[in-house]
């Protein structure tokens, strides 16, 4: 379905008024029925999506810089994904671990062609949080240890094990204690807001001392099963850590027999211009978790590891009813093919690099932008007041102005003062420039 450039599906004002009534009615009905704990980030009601665009019921067209929270990596309703879903749905929709079927072998055979060397065993589930739960169980089962090292700013999900690691915002944990025991947090290497006041130019990774102190004073390394870290911090602020920090962590894990787990739920599947963010740092984890963009909107996630670690996971010690759903696996296989055939890794790297260049020039013109960072099409823009104080109010104004002008954005960070730019990997240079035009106009208006 190609959306019309004028932003309306039909002419005249009658349909627009009808669409507005439909929007208000649907929002009211939904809010009456759903638990308010579920946050829906805008009041627009979407009728359809195609590529990098969404169309609302009142006919307005939006440039989507959220990808449904980094999920629609190859764009909304990509015809090859839709075709794969339709074809599989006509043959088999569900298996429930009762029998074998072709996608259960075909997709992991394809996936292992792009995963880091040696990571060629898979457990499929439905969400990022489920993948984290599975990775924690695998690490504890394999090592026989109970301790877990995590990092401040992390977001790993909201189920109890994943929530015990999540530390991006206290509200996620509020009134849910006690959480999983033996979880210890060290500061994430967030250079723009260094916990010990260092500057990147003179930093000697003193922040890693927090990890070493933790192992000396709180839990012995021989009791730690795994260290779980996002190779690029996601919901906590879109932070790119120093490569030498992750390499030092890898060396520590090797020395102490600790499994290194990379949470690539948001950063994986081409988002950063490479298949996985870990490739930017030249580090291979022991376990990796995938979700979000893996099946371009169909529910699917994966725990990925080596035969050395996963082959001893005894039958029945972990399981799933819906994980590895045949329709989702076919959508995931089609997603892989589209990324390769349309050279979307290269496109993400090129368009993302140009976007970062332009955002850096915007930072020079607008003091409210404190920092710009990212890789590929995983970009964070941090807004501040004088003295680096987080400026949430300006971000809220900018997002509202952008939404009014047809650009959909989402924020992140503990103070919600960071805009994340995560458009589908199919975005063109022209579409990116158009979105950045709208963004800069909104920044000027917010001043």
TrEMBL record:
<dbReference type="InterPro" id="IPR015421">
    <property type="entry name" value="PyrdxlP-dep_Trfase_major"/>
</dbReference>
<dbReference type="InterPro" id="IPR015422">
    <property type="entry name" value="PyrdxlP-dep_Trfase_small"/>
</dbReference>
<dbReference type="GO" id="GO:0034386">
    <property type="term" value="F:4-aminobutyrate:2-oxoglutarate transaminase activity"/>
</dbReference>
<dbReference type="InterPro" id="IPR015424">
    <property type="entry name" value="PyrdxlP-dep_Trfase"/>
</dbReference>
<feature type="compositionally biased region" description="Polar residues">
    <location>
        <begin position="1"/>
        <end position="14"/>
    </location>
</feature>
<dbReference type="InterPro" id="IPR050103">
    <property type="entry name" value="Class-III_PLP-dep_AT"/>
</dbReference>
<comment type="similarity">
    <text>Belongs to the class-III pyridoxal-phosphate-dependent aminotransferase family.</text>
</comment>
<dbReference type="GO" id="GO:0030170">
    <property type="term" value="F:pyridoxal phosphate binding"/>
</dbReference>
<protein>
    <submittedName>
        <fullName>4-aminobutyrate aminotransferase</fullName>
        <ecNumber>2.6.1.19</ecNumber>
    </submittedName>
</protein>
<dbReference type="GO" id="GO:0042802">
    <property type="term" value="F:identical protein binding"/>
</dbReference>
<dbReference type="Pfam" id="PF00202">
    <property type="entry name" value="Aminotran_3"/>
</dbReference>
<keyword id="KW-0808">Transferase</keyword>
<keyword id="KW-0663">Pyridoxal phosphate</keyword>
<feature type="region of interest" description="Disordered">
    <location>
        <begin position="1"/>
        <end position="21"/>
    </location>
</feature>
<dbReference type="InterPro" id="IPR005814">
    <property type="entry name" value="Aminotrans_3"/>
</dbReference>
<dbReference type="InterPro" id="IPR049704">
    <property type="entry name" value="Aminotrans_3_PPA_site"/>
</dbReference>
<keyword id="KW-0032">Aminotransferase</keyword>
